[in-house]
Amino acid sequence: MSERRKRFRKRRPPAGAPPGAFVVPEQAQAPRIHVIEYTADRVNEADLTDPEALQAYCDSKGTRWIDVQGLGDEKVLSRIGELFGIHPLAMADVVNVPQRPKVEEYEEHALVISQIAELRGSGDVEFEQFSMVLGSGCLVTFQERYGDPFDPVRQRIRQGGPIRRMGADYLMYALIDAVIDGYYPALETLGDSLENLEERIFARPQPGALRDIQHIRHELLQFRRVVRPTRETVNALLRESRFICDAVRVYLRDCYDHTVQVMDVVETYRELASGLMEVHLSRVSNRTNEVMKVLTIVSSVFIPLTFIAGIYGMNFEFMPGLRERWGYPATLASMVVVAAGMLYYFWRKGWLGGDDRGT
Hints:
By secondary structure, this protein is of the alpha+beta class. It has helices at 3-7, 74-83, 88-95, 151-159, 162-165, 168-181, 183-203, 207-239, 246-312, 327-348; strands spanning 32-38, 43-48, 63-69, 102-105, 110-119, 125-135, 138-143. It has a seven-stranded mixed β-sheet with strand order 2-1-3-7-6-5-4, sandwiched between helices.
């Protein structure tokens, strides 16, 4: 199975499994738990190895960010879901990745799923599911692998400011905003690749250009499958969610504008990639036609010359000049005149040099 197909293959429990069942792959990383608890006046951080230690944060008065990185232990994940009252169906969506970006509301919390864009060294874009469970004063986040783009958000919490005075819904907005901002560098890289391809195609069509264009089109298609539902998710949070206060909706409106901009860029690049493919195929076709035209002209010029050489090659006695000294030069001269005449005729018709002079 190709790597591209694996990206969209979702992990599913066995057929007939009860609702809320989830499957943890063997190669998944073990969960790491990092807790940030803060109020306007203080910040406490802790790295936990035992999920039972999270009980101390279940009823805390401050805002709590429970960050879980790695989905490789079913018991730990189930216990975290029990401690924070996460619905089994929500936990199944968290673990059985990848899910479509969406928002689902339950009685005591809301589940928000998004995708983090990670730019590889090869220029490929890889997406990682990022799940958020928003409750009263608490935000529990889940990631597939270690590492994330949220260090600036953590630094803002440590330094103080508006984020410390707001609740967990504002924290969720800050994380969503960081996820969407991470789309821009990846799209800029794809845009640079398209520009380089455009220069290569107009300079000289190359066999590998078509493969590169198709690769970028697949990357943009993957972006489209992520950004479009992300836009719908942010819009649903902005207009319908009862877990978002009015003060945070103002910031989510700006976040929605960013998703619209990203979607516009994705659609523009997709059209550009499709146009480049058409240009590449047209250039290759035109180049093939030019080669065939040259070969046809050369063949047309040599047809009468071959005819003359074939006639005189039969050596019949009645042929003009066969026994004369001037016969051979005269025959060559006639062949040159015929060839020159045909080339002049082709030139007058515009078949040579690309200038249409004929009627």
